[in-house]
């Protein structure tokens, strides 16, 4: 069992920044890709960003490319999402998740590729 705990959400004005963190208690953290997803009210959970197990490869949804940065610190078992130039449409609950397969980024954009999820952290961007 792997537990993921997100933090760093909050209320911010449009144009502002937030950094989300996701801490894992798994000893194998450094061998799995990680992803960030978000879910706005009335919408499906959607892919935001993913990072390979080493951090050498990163992937982004078009809607956040150039504004968000995903990173990880394997020594701290933590993955981050730096969010800049936030807009009201970024308002959602943000979830981190661990990829199902060891040393894989297969279908990183799909929710079905992840087996462990955090509880989520709310991000609200006011206009």
Written description of the protein model:
- It is a single chain.
- The protein is 0% helix and 47% strand.
- The chain has strands spanning 4-7, 10-13, 18-24, 34-39, 46-51, 58-60, 68-73, 78-83, 92-99, 114-117, 121-126.
- It has 127 residues and is mostly beta strands.
- The chain contains no helices and eleven strands.
- Strands 2, 4, 5, 6, 9, 10 and 11 form a seven-stranded mixed sheet that branches.
Helix content: under 10%
- Give the number of DSSP strands: 11
Span from first to last CA? 40 Å
How would the global form be characterised? Answer: globular
In round numbers, the mean pLDDT is: 97
Number of helices: 0
- Spans of at least 5 consecutive residues whose pLDDT stays below 50 are none
Percent of residues in β-strands: over 45%
From the alpha-carbon coordinates, what is the Rg to the nearest angstrom? 13 Å
Indicate the structural class.
mainly beta
